[in-house]
Please model this.
Amino acid sequence: MSLLSRLWRRPAPAADGTSVPLAAPETRASRVGPLIALQAYGRPVWTPRDYATLAREGYARNPVVHRAVRMVGEAAASVPWLLYEDDRELAHHDLLSLLARPNPHQTGPALLEEIYGHLMVAGNAYVELVEIDGHPRELYALRPDRVKVVPGPDGWPAAWDYTVGDRSVRFEARPGLPPPILHLKTFHPISDHYGLAPLEAAQIGLDVHNQTSAWTKALLDNSARPSGALVYRADTGANLSDEQFERLKKELEDGFQGAANAGRPLLLEGGLDWKPMGYSPKEMDFVEAKRDAARDIALAFGVPPMLLGIPGDNTYSNYAEANRAFWRLTVLPLVARTAAALEGWLAPSWSEHLRLKWDVDAVEALSLEREALWSRIGTADFLTTDEKRAVVGYGPKATADPGLPA
Model:
């Protein structure tokens, strides 16, 4: 049964009309458990902005955030999976099929891109497991703002509540079985159950970047000039009448405001003088402030500014070097964490000896590193053939799969 259909299903009461009590969670031996369990149950923790605001102001409206999230998500989701049982690579397995087609509506890369996007924007990603006859059959990504962790008496998550409107579904942890929800999260130094989103850490840069863009648009709409004031000189010995004031206001609105009237000269009479107010864009070092904010955003997401087209950053000598650093320092660590989490969550349903890995040889950005490694290993006369194969990730020649190179 899908998640949305479960939201509309009411639990059936017991035979005597009373509700069925929840099963007591398994007791843990952690000594800090009682301290963690003192916090409020089922309450999400956010910095002053909630997930919807972060997603709207960041991913939906800021081009730097949008591109950084897409780059990380698309790159990490494009890495192929490898499955091993002990030291033998499996070309076909139900786990590989599940990851390739997790549900009828999504492909594997689409689901993973959604998961990585949630991690970047919310710091948390939740994946629902649907089982049939005790075997994993479908995986679904859940919106992080709709999920609340329900801690048990020992402080560890005992359940997860998924809420849409006034309806909620609870996923209970099952002792001895894989949990129905996989919670992936980034490190948060002051939260026990939720992660800290890179977008939250980049909020200052995000605000500066968005506000500079809004200020630029407002400046263009107002004749591309800083605001000022019309000052009536007191030495003329008279004041503007109400009729004169309204006429002057209307003439300014009709003839001098708007981008179409930019640069049109303003003729003053009757003791009027124009006094500029505020700083000019040059005085504010406007462009550089916006670039600094963009670099702060890129830094929070682990994307080299050069890859985002941000000028003024010479950290890397060329684009290829920046791209390799992006894969080595950002993408592959994220893929490794995800692989370890999926392995521990799904693999025991089939065998305790399954190991989920990723195919780094399929990453085109790292092809030069791979070529250099093979060249060094090939010329190493002090290594045997099997030792060379082990260095590059293959098994011994005598037991190698027929399809693998000798």
In short: Residues 319-346 form the longest helix (28 residues). The chain has 13 helices and eleven strands.
